[in-house]
UniProtKB/TrEMBL annotation:
GO biological process entries: defense response to bacterium; innate immune response-activating signaling pathway; plant-type hypersensitive response
Record-given protein name: Uncharacterized protein
Family to which the UniProt record says this protein belongs: Belongs to the disease resistance NB-LRR family.
Xref: InterPro entries: Apaf_helical (IPR042197), Disease_R_plants (IPR044974), LRR_dom_sf (IPR032675), LRR_R13L4/SHOC2-like (IPR055414), NB-ARC (IPR002182), P-loop_NTPase (IPR027417), RX-like_CC (IPR038005), Rx_N (IPR041118)
Keywords assigned: Coiled coil, Leucine-rich repeat, Nucleotide-binding, Plant defense, Repeat
Gene3D superfamilies found in the cross-reference section: 1.20.5.4130, Helical domain of apoptotic protease-activating factors, P-loop containing nucleotide triphosphate hydrolases, Ribonuclease Inhibitor, Winged helix-like DNA-binding domain superfamily/Winged helix DNA-binding domain
Domain (NB-ARC): residue spans on this chain: 189-357
Record PANTHER family: DISEASE RESISTANCE PROTEIN RP (PTHR23155), OS08G0412100 PROTEIN (PTHR23155:SF1167)
Disease resistance protein winged helix domain segment(s): 443-514
Source organism, top-level taxon: Eukaryota
Domain Disease resistance R13L4/SHOC-2-like LRR: 562-922
Domain Disease resistance N-terminal, first and last residues per copy: 15-98
GO molecular function: ADP binding
């Protein structure tokens, strides 16, 4: 069962969510089909397991405050394993129904239909045990777990007093400047933000990942500037701070130099009043280190009067949203602490071990650099690795072992444990669903670039995401992804035009932590060439296989019968057949160029498969693909072009995402009414016109990519065009948000025939065909944020585009330019929301003052020898100095028929204009056809 509204699986509760949903289905409207005694047993299972599920969640919360005792952890592990076993038993009932009577999956009952159908049919299966007997066995296991719960007093573990631990940030408070590396620059920048001459009270937030040095930096600034203030205090918080204790600590520090009696013994309101009274007329400096929530800040900030004596507050946090909520709203004073540079990282590493890099033995240089690289500029990691290596011999083999262990969760050492405890604070602060999503990322290899949309789809297929607040599962999954970035637990790599993160990676030290946690909870099992098999001694639920020698896996007697997720990064002919993985929900065949179609022959046995991704060449999907009635996501994007999909694919009535590279659709596509994403499909002369008609039935479709290959010379072109336009119109009035059309042939029939226009459309790309003008329907798209088109650009065209109200990305091509249109001008207030512009045109583009106020990235081309003719100067004023938000500038310069000094003068003019901008962007120049430049007079 796949419930779009609730989390079906998690690291904290195992398969409890999915299992409880299935037991509820058994007790649904058709429960009269069960014997009365069986109904009672199922109801007992549901109620008892629901209680255990709630306790498992409470145990996860309690573990964030203090480690659970071994007895409680053992009980928790057994109950989680039991949830998987019981769900497998229920799933077996569904499997046995396959091939007996009508296909219940098409009866409209889904999993409920399967389960109820089995309950009815099982009475006729004399050779098998009855369902009542099996449920009795399951009940016995649950009852025994309940008895152990009482005997071990598991519930008491939740309410036990939290253990007060030593503050592991103390060394950062007493670090001397002489032993620090890379602090001077951030310290001076932060001091500059503090001492700007403004007498109003200001709050500066310092944000960064755990172990990045926020506490050290804040302390260095505090020690450097405290003498400039009348009163000062430095306090560190925990995840669940005692606010009263924090206020009393502040008072004791603030009043230690004051005459009079030290008070601070009242409740929070009294303490706030006492602090405000004391600080009201003073210039004060307060550091609040490591704050975890906006709720805590809302209370703490009440103690700080907003006076006009130049008072300052420094807040450090690991969470971006907390940093923004703390900083003074009128100034946006958020300082993002960056990782150490490569040079600073090496300096810190070698200083801690050898005193300097020059003292490092030659045989350790290369491996040292690799260890530093894996630390990713994280000072805590560098210092920890250096401390660990001081306990090792100076042999390259010994250091290579340590290097290989980073990211594997294997190395055990007091320094490593100390570092993990600091990083664990961030993990423990996550809600259950985000812990699950982060642990799941341990399935990916080190340094693996993970695309956001791909990861979110995996989470959806696993059942980790719960829809909330009117968002669909994909939108909610992106919120999860952003929250992990916001908390500095995954690192953003690439960004989209609108600032959204496109891909990420997991820092090796965070990977180290989550691999350890995933193994401990038997959540993920990892097999690689580089490290030993990491898996629980019990059953395997999620298997990530990145190993050239498959014997490594088989030799450990690893059972595949209970594997729910399988990642194969390196395929081998010795890989167990898919028929062995009967409980599989997710199958990802990534990077397997030697994968053969024959391996997929048994895929029809994977009745519960929700997600299938294949990345291999020359793969043909078997006709049995239509048997996968639970399939939600089919990703063939990285396969070679497929002539056509199997005709049985139209039976996949639950499929939401069809991701491919130029595939042809079979008749019956209109039956797949759950489809929300379909790209990229080909329409050519072999495509039945009926397929275009059926597109109109896919009213849930949000994303469509289509490659139009209907030649203008075909007699039946208008039949294709009319049906295509008719379907597009219906999709445009339904849910269509993202449309890509590719065609080497004219699409003129789209110019004025789309009515009513697709007003919900957010992104539009039309490639391979040059429009004569901007169609009226396109000009009316008020929600369009992304536009990639080829059109004949004249000043009037540019003005139409400049008036799009929310356009953020524009990629504009034109291969023609009239002589009178050699110089186009973006006028004042044009492109008000545009953030990225890529202008490919044989024309010069000029910006007026007030144009493109949000433009951050600009790429354009310029023909040097035409500049003077078009703009009246060999070094034109392109208006680049008006682009106050510009950060990235790329200029493609065509040098043919131009003199060297003209090219150099043009580059110098652009360089000078960019230097006048607030962000001081460094232009990137690409010269084309340099060999066709004219030499200067001397040459």
């Amino acid at each position: 069962m796949m419930d779009g509204g609730g989390i079906m699986a998690s690291a904290a509760t195992g398969a409890m969510g999915s299992l409880l949903a299935k037991l509820a289905a058994l007790l649904g409207e058709d429960c009269y089909r069960m014997q009365r005694g069986t109904r009672r047993e199922v109801a007992f299972l549901r109620d008892e397991l629901s209680s255990m599920n709630a306790l498992l969640e409470r145990l996860a919360d309690a573990e964030a405050d203090a480690p659970l005792d071994p007895q409680t952890r053992e009980w928790r592990g057994q109950v989680r394993e039991m949830s998987y076993d019981i769900e497998d038993c229920v799933d077996d009932y569904m499997d046995q129904l396959r091939g007996r009577g009508p296909d219940l999956s098409l009866s409209g009952g889904g999993v409920l239909g399967f389960v109820l159908g089995y309950v009815q049919a099982v009475r006729e299966m004399v050779s098998r045990r009855g369902i009542a007997e099996q449920i009795q066995d399951l009940k016995a296991r649950v009852v025994e777990a309940g008895h152990r719960r009482k005997r071990y007093k598991i519930d008491a573990a939740v309410s036990s007093t939290r253990v007060v631990q030593v503050d592991r940030r103390l060394p950062a408070l007493y670090a001397e400047l002489g032993g620090l590396v890379g602090v001077s620059g951030p310290r001076e920048e932060l001091i500059r933000l503090l001492h700007d001459g403004d007498q109003r009270m200001k709050v500066v937030s310092v944000v960064g990942a755990g172990g990045l040095g926020k506490t050290t930096l804040a302390n260095q600034v505090y020690r450097s500037t405290r003498d400039r203030f009348d009163s000062k205090s430095f306090v560190s918080l925990w995840q669940n701070p005692d606010i009263g204790m924090i206020f009393r600590t502040m008072l004791s520090q603030l009043k230690k130099d004051e005459c009079g009696e030290l008070t601070g013994s009242g409740d929070k309101e009294q303490l706030i009043n006492e602090l405000r009274d004391f600080l009201q007329d003073k210039r004060y400096l307060i550091v609040v280190d490591d704050i975890w929530s906006t709720q805590a800040w809302k209370i703490i900030k009440c103690a700080f009067p907003d006076n006009t004596h130049g008072s300052r507050i420094i807040v450090t946090t690991r969470i971006g949203t907390v940093a923004k909520s703390c900083s003074s709203p009128d100034y946006d004073l958020v300082y993002e602490l960056r990782a150490l540079s490569e040079d600073d990282s090496k300096m810190l590493f070698f200083r801690k071990i050898f005193g300097s890099e020059d003292e490092c033995p030659h045989q350790l240089k290369e491996v040292s650099v690799e260890i530093v690289r894996k630390c990713g500029g994280l000072p805590l990691a560098i210092i920890t690795m250096a401390s660990l290596l001081t306990t090792k011999s100076d042999t390259r083999e010994e250091w290579m072992k340590v290097c290989s262990s980073i990211g594997s969760g294997l190395e055990k050492n007091s320094d490593v444990e100390e570092m993990n405890m600091i990083l664990l604070l961030s993990y423990n602060d996550l809600p259950h669903h985000l812990r699950t999503c982060l642990l799941y990322m341990s399935m990916f290899p080190e340094d693996h670039e993970i695309r956001r949309d791909y990861l979110v789809r995996r989470w959806i297929a696993e059942g980790f995401i719960k829809a909330f607040g009117g968002r669909n599962l994909e939108e909610e999954g992106e919120c999860y992804f952003n929250e992990l970035i916001n908390r500095s637990l995954i690192q953003p790599l690439d960004f989209q035009y609108d600032g959204r993160v496109y891909s990420c990676r997991v820092h090796d030290l965070i990977l180290d932590l989550i691999v350890s946690k995933a193994v401990e909870d038997n959540f993920v099992t990892v097999v690689t060439d580089k490290r030993q098999i990491l898996h629980h001694q019990g059953k395997v639920h999620r298997l990530s296989f990145d190993c050239a020698c498959v014997q490594n896996m088989l030799s450990h007697s690893m059972s595949s019968a209970h594997v729910r997720s399988l990642n194969i990064f390196k395929y081998s002919e010795l890989m167990p057949p898919l028929s062995n993985f009967r409980t599989l929900r997710v199958l990802d065949l990534d990077g397997n160029e030697n994968l053969e179609s024959s391996y997929l022959e048994d895929i029809s046995n994977l009745f519960h498969l929700r997600y299938l991704r294949i990345r291999a060449s020359n793969i043909t999907l078997p006709e049995q693909i239509g048997e996968l009635q639970s399939l939600m996501i089919l990703d063939l994007l990285n396969c070679s072009e497929t002539a056509e999909l199997p005709s049985s694919i139209v039976k996949l009535w639950k499929l939401k995402w069809l991701i491919a590279h130029r595939v042809k659709l079979p008749n019956g596509i209109g039956n797949m009414q759950a489809l929300e994403f379909m790209s990229l499909v080909v329409v050519d002369f072999t495509t039945p016109v009926a397929v275009l008609q059926e597109l109109a039935n896919l009213t849930k479709l949000r994303t469509l990519g289509l490659d139009w290959r209907i030649s203008n010379t075909r007699k039946d072109k208008m039949a294709y065009a009319d049906n295509f336009v008719s379907s597009l119109v219906k999709l445009g009035t339904s849910n269509l948000r993202y449309l890509t059309l590719i065609s080497p042939w004219s699409l003129d029939f789209l110019l004025d025939s789309w009515s009513p226009p697709p007003h919900h459309l957010r992104e539009l790309a039309i490639k391979g065909w040059c429009l004569k003008k901007i169609p009226m329907w396109m000009a009316s798209l008020a929600n369009l944020t992304y536009l990639d088109i080829e059109v004949k650009v004249i000043q009037e065209t540019l003005q139409v585009l400049a008036d799009f109200p929310v356009l953020q990305f524009l990629k504009l091509y034109s291969n023609a330019a009239d002589p009178e249109e050699r110089c186009l001008v973006v006028n004042n207030n044009g492109f008000r929301c545009l953030k990225k512009l890529n202008f490919v045109h044989w024309t010069n583009l000029m910006f007026s003052e007030g144009a493109t106020p949000m433009l951050g990235t600009l790429e354009f081309q310029i023909i040097v020898h035409e500049v003077k003719t078009a703009c009246g100067s060999s070094s034109p004023d392109l208006g680049i100095f008006h682009l106050s938000a510009l950060k990235n500038l790329v200029v493609n310069i065509y040098c043919e028929c131009a003199r060297v000094e003209e090219v150099e003068a043009l580059e110098a003019a652009i360089q000078f204009s960019a230097s006048m901008l607030p962000n001081n962007p460094t232009p990137t120049f690409h010269r084309f056809r340099e060999s066709e430049m004219l030499m200067d007079d001397a040459g």
